[in-house]
Recover the amino acids of this structure.
């Protein structure tokens, strides 16, 4: 991805479908979507917040940050990508 391109929600979905894990910031707080033997989980500042779920898509539908869906934060430009592992 070029520096000028912003990481979009569709990029996140694609990367998770490939089994990758994502680290990013929303409004200054660190967040991670990881996959363990128990399933997919969403973490905020080293605390498990949502999950585990068998499928990343199920997890994504349940994530809320400050009361808003994760996709909404992407659309508003609140997400800063850190790592795709």
């Amino acid at each position: 991805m070029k520096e000028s391109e912003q990481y979009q929600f569709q990029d996140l979905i694609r990367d998770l479908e490939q089994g990758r894990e994502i680290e990013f910031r929303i409004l200054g707080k660190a967040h991670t979507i990881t996959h363990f033997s128990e399933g997919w989980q969403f973490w905020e500042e080293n605390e498990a917040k949502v999950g585990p779920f068998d499928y990343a898509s199920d997890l994504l539908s349940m994530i809320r940050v400050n009361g808003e869906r994760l996709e909404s934060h992407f659309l508003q430009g609140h997400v800063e990508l850190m790592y795709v592992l």
Remarks:
- The helical segments are 9-17, 56-62, 70-75.
